[in-house]
Design a protein that fits this description.
mainly alpha; 3 helices; about 60% helix
Length: about 90
């Protein structure tokens, strides 16, 4: 992924789109972001989508979630994300 790449947000309502944009910008460019915070941000975004737009969860999990995870992995130089609970 390069810095100019945008998150796939088509098919979501305005609330989700705004939330995705904020999360995406944080994952890509917050200089103080720690890995655990990025993981929590992704999970919080997933939880919010499940509450705000439950019908969009499939689309979120197939389009948005992989991009967010990939951005976080790239940022921290990981080949895969840690499993288990995030504190």
């Amino acid at each position: 992924m390069n810095d100019g790449e945008e998150l796939e947000m088509s098919g979501f309502d305005a609330r989700c789109t705004l939330m995705f944009d904020v999360a995406w910008q944080t994952l890509r460019s917050d200089p103080d972001l720690k890995l655990c915070e990025g993981l929590r941000l992704i999970e919080a975004t997933r939880t919010a989508v499940s509450r705000l737009a439950p019908a969009s969860m499939g689309l979120f999990e197939s389009k948005v979630l992989p991009q967010m995870r990939s951005a976080l992995m790239e940022r921290f130089g990981l080949s895969e994300l840690p499993t288990g609970n995030v504190n």
